[in-house]
Design goal:
The chain has 26 helices and 20 strands. By secondary structure, the chain is an alpha+beta fold.
């Protein structure tokens, strides 16, 4: 038995502190398991998880007890050897099972290296070494499950927020029914203290909702008639009647949960690189061990080398770092679809912003309504409301809101056709009505008088966005809108430049005067205006073809294609936007520009931690090999050394849980 198992009697408490550590881990794991149960939907998976948790827990306790019995010489000789062999055998089972499973898939894993070490320990009669290996691997597995569970705490806690009951309105009565009974189009009542169970639109009432489950921010948002409400949000005060739009898996809340869970499986390039390195590392370690044995005939030396170089800590620490980062960011309303996009952010040198909804708030307000030839304003707004009701463009939404506040009844519209970035048209009472930019109307045969163009240019000079309306081939008026620049825009641009972003470009469909004014205000020197969605795509392609790594920031409504094309697509303020959630690689649920440098900072932190993990692993293994070749560490000592140093990269990766990004 090595010296590490025979310390002076007065020093044994320090050596046995490890047992206390693992009993603490087991206690934490029990709580983690209770959280885990909430999102394991398969009964089989739950039984399997329970089995492996208890198997590893019992194996750890048994290993510590047997080593304690050996240390105190409570049992010796044949009886002790039986205990050591028995515990070693049970420690070998999951390792060989995992190694064989990986080999069938033609993968070389750390379990293969550990299996060889365990088998050689048993064949060489190194029972204590075998027990230490089993203890090391069981502890690593248990620790990995615990930390992985912590990384998914955001999902586990959110799952509890899914309401199972809802108050449905039927024939003027409020009836409590199961959420599975609700369908699209139903009316539900939401009272103070209730969680909204569906995605829907407020029919009547007024209430303040806490949307922190989706955005990570608990500042209440006032909801009134016409506003959208989302599942899982909490009604703090007031009451609402909501018309159901989406239920169950179709809600934004459910889609976010699914995204975060799927993101854990999407590996970053550096993780795949480590996997490939691990395969070669295991192969070379086995070959080197065989050669060393051929030349030295020293099975104990080979065994010690195998035990020191077992890289199970590295195999767990790096995926854990990405998993922890994704869970950490999810709690802050930043949804990352995989580790590859976190790593991709660290290589970004060019950031492209779509102006509307990112640099500006994307909520333009109508400043002025101007009609031509004394056309009645009331009728003008009714026609405008009918056409714009078929569009989701921010300018159209501004018109819809303004007209709704005027309580104007809008007529029916048919044969609607929208040209994104240009305008929209349809038939109302047998006449064609168009709404959009000047060019859109001109391209459709609308002729403007010099007086009409003068009024339009006058509003453009004031940096107003113009939506012109025509009826029966004649322009009848327009609305002038103003979109507010985000207060944090200037400081965010300065922060990005300070973080090493070399190029910041703003794209917009607005006219050159508005674009120039916004760019100057926020400190952007490069911009392109009067763009259609296809123009933005072409500009992005040109930049990508030049070899630059590009992040595209948009609201996900009209720039979904650009978000999908960029190296990293970032959708900002995406709460409630299916297009943003589907097309972007990183989804910022908060409507805050400051989340962009925050996300960039976190991506850099994760890569820094991973590099530290690699350095720690390399140094620890180098020191261990030196100690083995100097004869200081035998097999048992090497197993104990690996066991104790395993936790350095793991604990380093866990720093992400308490990370504080400072954009």
């Amino acid at each position: 038995m090595d010296k590490i198992l025979k310390p002076p009697a007065g020093n044994w408490p320090r050596k046995f502190k490890v047992s206390v550590i693992f009993f603490i881990v087991i206690n934490y794991q029990k709580r983690a398991f209770r959280a885990k149960k909430h999102h394991i939907t398969s009964t089989f998976s739950l039984i399997g998880y329970k089995f492996y948790f208890w198997f590893d827990s019992v194996l750890i306790v048994a290993s510590l007890l047997v080593l304690g019995i050996s240390f105190w010489r409570i049992i010796s000789g044949f009886g002790l050897n039986i205990l050591l062999i028995g515990v070693s055998f049970f420690g070998l089972l999951p390792v060989i099972f995992n190694a064989l499973k990986a080999l069938l898939k033609k993968h070389l894993t750390i379990d293969l290296l550990a299996s060889v070490a365990l088998v050689f320990s048993l064949l060489a009669g190194q029972w204590h070494s075998a027990v230490f290996i089993g203890l090391m691997l069981a502890s690593a597995r248990l620790f990995a499950r615990y930390t992985a569970t912590r990384a998914k705490e955001a999902i586990s806690s959110l799952m509890k927020l899914r309401p199972t009951k809802v108050h449905q309105l039927q024939d003027g009565k409020v009836i409590e029914v199961g959420i599975d009974k609700i369908k699209v189009g139903d009316l539900i009542a939401v009272e103070s203290g209730d969680r909204v169970a569906v995605d829907g639109v407020v029919e009547s009432g007024e209430a303040s909702l806490d949307q922190s489950t989706l955005t990570g921010e608990s500042e209440p948002i006032l909801k009134t008639a016409g506003d959208e409400v989302l599942s899982s949000t909490l009604c703090i005060n007031g009451s609402l009647v909501v018309r159901v739009k989406r239920v169950g898996k179709e809600t934004v809340f459910s889609k976010i949960l699914e995204l975060v869970e799927q993101s854990q499986a999407n590996k970053a390039p550096i993780t795949s690189l480590v996997d490939r390195f691990a395969g070669w590392y295991i192969f070379l370690t086995l070959v080197a061990s065989i050669l060393i044995y051929i030349f030295t005939k020293n099975i104990l030396l080979v065994l010690a080398i195998l035990l020191v170089t077992c890289a199970d800590d590295l195999a767990v620490a790096i995926p854990l770092a990405f998993s922890a980062a994704i869970g950490f960011m999810a709690r802050r309303g930043i949804i990352v679809k995989g580790g590859e996009f976190l790593e991709g952010l660290t290589k970004i040198k060019t950031v492209i912003f779509d102006k509307t909804g990112t640099i500006t708030k994307g909520k333009p307000k109508i400043e002025q309504v101007i009609t031509f030839n004394n056309y009645p304003e009331h009728e003008f707004l009714a026609l405008l409301g009918a056409v714009e009701s078929e569009s989701i463009h921010p300018a159209a939404r501004a018109s819809q809101k303004y007209i709704a506040e005027q309580k104007i009844n809008i007529p029916a519209i048919v044969k609607v056709h929208e040209e994104p970035g240009f305008g929209i048209k349809g038939i109302i009472n047998g006449e064609e009505v168009l709404a959009g930019k000047t060019k859109f109307l001109k391209d459709n045969g609308i002729v403007f008088s010099s007086a009409e163009l003068e009024k339009i240019d006058e509003q453009k000079a004031k940096q107003h966005t113009i939506t012109i309306l025509s009826k029966g081939a004649k322009p009848i008026g327009f609305v002038a809108m103003q979109d507010e620049i985000r207060p944090a825009a200037s400081s965010v641009m300065r922060t990005l430049k300070g973080m090493g972003i070399k190029r910041i470009l703003m794209l917009t469909g607005d006219n050159d005067k508005i674009a120039a004014d916004v760019a100057k205000h926020v400190g952007i020197s490069e911009f392109k205006a009067d763009l259609l969605p296809q123009h933005k795509i072409n500009i992005l392609k040109q930049i990508l073809y030049s070899g630059e790594k590009v992040a595209m920031v948009g609201d996900g409504v009209n720039d979904a294609a650009a978000l999908a094309l960029a190296d990293v697509g970032i959708a900002m303020g995406a709460i409630g936007s299916d297009a943003a959630i589907d097309s972007a690689d990183i989804v910022l649920m908060k409507d805050k520009l400051t989340n962009i440098p925050e996300t960039l900072n976190l991506s850099r932190l994760i890569l820094k931690i991973i590099k530290q993990d690699l350095w720690l692993w390399g140094i620890v293994n180098g020191v261990g090999l030196v100690l083995v070749f100097l004869g200081i560490l035998g097999p048992s000592g090497a197993a104990a050394y690996n066991f104790l140093t395993d936790f350095l990269p793991l604990l380093n990766s866990m720093r992400i849980f308490s990370a504080k990004s400072r954009p």
